[in-house]
Design goal:
It comes from Xenopus laevis. Belongs to the TRAFAC class myosin-kinesin ATPase superfamily. Myosin family. It is found in: Cell projection; Cytoplasm, Cytoskeleton. By secondary structure, the protein is an alpha+beta fold. The chain has one domain: Myosin VI head, motor domain, U50 subdomain (Four Helix Bundle (Hemerythrin (Met), subunit A)), CATH 1.20.120.720. It is built from nine helices and nine strands. Strand 7 and strand 8 form a beta hairpin. Helix 2 runs antiparallel to helix 9 and helix 6 runs antiparallel to helix 7. The radius of gyration is 21 Å and the shape is globular.
């Protein structure tokens, strides 16, 4: 809360570009949606750290840069009892109109394993309002419509991937359960990859030894770990891309021939006590 108020105070006291100031202020609700989650102790706990650099010249904000640290990506695939996944998943599932959900390949929220068990506790009205704030923030910061659409498709892919289940085979490997083949196909389409390539990443490991390719089949546990690991990495890379895009849009007037002053604001993540460190 304190870093948010400090940022607002500095921007509003500045004599700089009003549009740039509004863009900077809209970054906070955008990053909160993708980087905050409900924990046992806090309904809006920051699950990452960020360092905001405000750049001034002649008392006016000329640009900003954000550095993000240590996103708790394990939350994507696992939440302890009483906790939830990142806000954006609930906001998106509540806020996107039913007729529009087919564009992203979204189904009923309770079907998704990564969030289904906590869905009953979600305040749908609050999530709809949160989704509208996120969309408004993205447009005000400067994201293009296609970029916004691509973000939602990838988030949908993360949810679909979480529903891919496996069953053992006699040869020691695994296969995707017949009832989960639709989820595999959906995830591959949402990620823009071939279904066979995604299946291979989940069910085996390829390595090179002395120029020879060796294929090792995964056990059921290894396949499930691979699935969750891919989901976490995709979400983490998506979050990193959002921050890079924000920095690109907030670069502002950075004339290297003129001296700039800088104020840095460190907003560290909340501390939690996990039963298992993932």
């Amino acid at each position: 809360k304190a870093p948010k108020l400090l940022l607002k105070h500095l921007v509003r006291r500045s004599r700089g570009n009003l549009q740039l100031g509004q863009q900077i202020l809209q970054v906070n609700p955008l990053l909160e949606a993708f980087g905050n989650a409900q924990t046992v102790m806090n309904p809006n706990s920051s699950r990452f750290g960020k360092y905001i650099q405000l750049r001034f010249r002649d008392g006016a904000v000329r640009g900003a840069k954000i550095n993000e640290y240590l996103l708790e990506k394990s939350r994507v695939s696992h939440q302890d009892p009483g906790e939830k996944n990142f806000h954006i998943f609930y906001s998106m599932l509540c806020g996107i109109p039913e007729q529009e959900k087919q564009v992203y390949g979204l189904l009923q929220p309770s079907l998704y394993r990564y969030i289904g068990s906590e869905w009953e506790d979600v305040e749908s009205r609050e999530c709809v309002e949160s989704y509208q704030r996120v969309c408004n923030a993205m447009r005000m910061v400067g994201f293009q419509e296609q970029e916004e659409l691509d973000l939602k498709v990838i988030l949908s892919g993360v949810l679909s991937l979480g529903n891919v289940m496996f069953e053992p085979q006699e040869n020691g490997g695994v296969r995707v359960s017949p009832t989960a083949m639709g989820w595999l196909k959906a995830a591959a389409g949402q990620f823009g990859v071939q279904e066979e390539e995604l299946l291979s990443c989940l069910t085996c490991t390829l390595s090179m030894t002395r120029g020879e390719s060796i294929r090792r089949l995964h056990s059921q546990q290894q396949a499930e770990d691979s699935r969750d690991s891919i989901a976490r990495v995709v979400y983490s890379r998506l979050f990193g891309w959002i921050v890079c895009k924000i920095n690109e849009l907030l670069a502002g007037d950075m004339d290297m021939g003129k001296e700039l002053q800088e104020i840095g604001i460190l907003d560290i993540f909340g501390f939690e006590n996990f039963s298992v460190n993932r």
